[in-house]
Structure formats: C-alpha cells, structure tokens
Amino acid sequence: xxxxxxxxxxxxxxxxxxxxxxxxxxxxxxxxxxxxxxxxxxxxxxxxxxxxxxxxxxxxxxxxxxxxxxxxxxxxxxxxxxxxxxxxxxxxxxxxxxxxxxxxxxxxxxxxxxxxxxxxxxxxxxxxxxxxxxxxxxxxxxxxxxxxxxxxxxxxxxxxxxxxxxxxxxxxxxxxxxxxxxxxxxxxxxxxxxxxxxxxxxxxxxxxxxxxxxxxxxxxxxxxxxxxxxxxxxxxxxxxxxxxxxxxxxxxxxxxxxxxxxxxxxxxxxxxxxxxxxxxxxxxxxxxxxxxxxxxxxxxxxxxxxxxxxxxxxxxxxxxxxxxxxxxxxxxxxxxxxxxxxxxxxxxxxxxxxxxxxxxxxxxxxxxxxxxxxxxxxxxxxxxxxxxxxxxxxxxxxxxxxxxxxxxxxxxxxxxxxxx
Length: 420
Description:
Elements: H1 13-16, H2 26-51, H3 54-73, H4 78-89, H5 94-105, H6 109-138, H7 141-157, H8 159-169, H9 172-177, H10 181-194, H11 201-221, H12 233-260, H13 267-276, H14 278-292, H15 294-314, H16 320-346, H17 352-375, H18 383-398, H19 414-418
C-alpha cells in the first residue's frame, strides 16, 4: 500500500498494519476498547481513592498510563495494540481526578476556585495545543507515544517524595473522614504552626473530640461505600442528576469537538486553535464563579449552547455549523470547569472518590455516544446541532434543583451533604 501523507505526514499504527478496506474498522475497535477501559478505571481508581487514599489512586492511575504507553510503543499487531490501549485507558480520568479532589479538599473557600480551575484553564488547553506539533516533530507514532509517556515516568519516579509529603502535610480531610483522627490532628497542628497560629491544647482537645464523635456517630449508622447513595432518596436523586448532567456535558463537548473539523483547513492547526478556545472558557469561571455562583454559570452556559445550536438548525450556511461548534465549545468548557468543582463540592469526603468515579463513568458514556450523534448528520444534516440544543435545555433544567455551593464548607460526612 502507498499512503497519501498530505493530511498526516508520518506513519501511524493504521498505515503500518494496513488497516484499510475490510480492516478499516480495527482502529475504531481499539478506540472503543480504550474508552471501555476508562469506564473500568473510573470504578477501580474511584474505589481506591476512598479506601486507600487520593494519592495512591493518583499514582496507580498514572502507573497504568506509563505501562500502557510503553506497551503501545512496542505494539506490532492489532490484539497487542488493543490490549495496551486498554491498560492506558484505565487511567483516562483518574490520572487527574484524584489529585484534583485532593487539591479541592485541602484549599480554603477563598482560593478553591482559583486553585481548582488553574490547571483546567491553562495546563490542559496549552498542553493540547502543542500536542499536534509534538507529533509532527516526532514524525512517527511510536516516538510520539514515547514522548508523551516520558513526563509521566518522571512523575512516577517522584512518587515516594509525593507520598511522604502529602501524607504528612495536606491529607487531613480524608484522614479524619475515615477515622484516622490522630494522624489528621498531627497534620492540623503542623498546618497551624506553619501558619503562625497559636491554639491552646484545650481547643485542640475539643477539636479532636468533635471529629472522633462525628466519626463514631456515622460508623454506628452507616458504612462508607458507594451504596450509601441508594439508601436515601435525596442522595440518589443528587447522584442521578449529577451523572446525567455530566453525560450531557461530555456528549456536547465531543460533538462540538468533532464538528470543528468541518472547517476547511489543516487539521493540526484546527486542533490547536480549538484547544486554545478553552483558555477564555476557563478564565471566565475564574473571574465570575465566586461572584455569581456555580449554578447560574452552568445554566447560562448551557443556555448559550442551546440558543446557538437552535440558530444553526434554522440558519443554513457553510460556516454556520463550525462557528456554532466553536461557540458551543467555549460554553461547554465553562460547564466542564465549573461542573468539575461543583460536583466535588456537593459530594461528601467519605465517598467523593467513588461518587466522582460514577459521574466520570457517565461522562465517558457520553463521549462514546458522541460519534454516533455526529454520524447522524448523514441521515439528517441538522441532527447533531438539534441534539445538542435539546440536551442543553434538559441539562440546564435538571441542575436547577442541585444545591449551590458558593461560600459553603465542603461536606465531610453523608449527613453534611444531606443538609446542603
């Protein structure tokens, strides 16, 4: 086979193994396996986050990414490649989500939005924007795979230092929530000392008794497992709404991302530009979410998606759909950045990891459905935008019943979450 290198100027796994004609679907199968693995990874690392700690979940997920990345670079045929993509896919969400949860849990209300959204606003968009040019510079899919896996190897090499530092300095909320009161109090005392706060032994003793009693009361009533969401109707409704909201957000994001490639230009340039649209989508929440609140930001952003999508359905033109996709991507980026923080603030500490795992699982499901929605364009030209419009309206309506968490202390126990 001789391949046209005009669009992708370097060898890929598909061209090396001639995944064409009757083997054209092999690439799609491997990609599907990757996303299925992400569903498994959400449940696995979410459980580890709540029962072994956020740090262990974070590093095990990234270790999975390293192992999968190395195996991918060594792949020579379909089955080995697909198996390696499964291992890599396990890490898709929790290579970041665990450390995001830990960060949110250990930052005060005043700085929660800034710290929580900084990476989402700058690191992800700029990292994504340079990715195509790294691929071109590497000029081979195996070298590219090694290049993007290498930084994770460095992170894993630093694991002992991170584990020692985080376990001894900023892990107190999870320690207290699972009954490790003495360790949690040691961290709090150290934090007070570093901050220059003089607190009497009497006050410390009262704080310790409070946490110990809180943990004892909860232990006599319930155990900390994902099943707690199904024991009370309100908890189940909150989890169901958050999950469906995340599914809608992921589906809209995927459809808009794919629609951007309808623009008649170089796909590498378009990918970089589309990633950079997420920067203003991240800056807006940084400036407004602590002034307007989480709920208004999400509802307004979804309303923008709905309005622009309805316009795209009614108005015809070569640039209407791609332009709408860019507007929608900006709006749905706000939804994602605010939603990530909002979800973490609604779920209680004791089951936050498992709860976010289920919610991220629904997000992965939305991403899996995205290509089917885009493919519906072959049946009905306006089908993708019409679907986005309807889902945006539904998403904006269902989140109206969720609690607002602006200036609210993070819930530690299930009872704290019930009172939001």
